[in-house]
Amino acid sequence: MAQSYVKFVADLKAALGVVLRSQRSAVQTEAGIHTAIGAALKAMKREFVHEHRLNERDRLDYFVTPGIVIEAKKGAAGIAVLQQVARYLDHPDTACAVVIAMRCDGQIPKTLREKPIFTIELWRLIL
Q: Model pTM greater than 0.85?
């Protein structure tokens, strides 16, 4: 299953890169980033829910079948994002997380709660 997550992230990165290179201004706001992610997922023909509620407290930016959490941030992703993603990964319906941010500060591990975490840095996609 881990190999399928690696492929998903590679495909998402490629599709998101295509969207962002045609709409560079999307990275200026978190809403724009969300729109770009949605367009990339549609291009990939993936089933997803935008702003999916896990429980009363936690709302995922994107929930992609089967159990992939996508958390998007306009700025840098660091320890605060990691704490948020940890709560999401505690949920039994989640299997993997992808953090998408302008940059990731190196504090995000490869696994958390025994589930894989991947990062996509937006600045790399718009060059």
A: yes
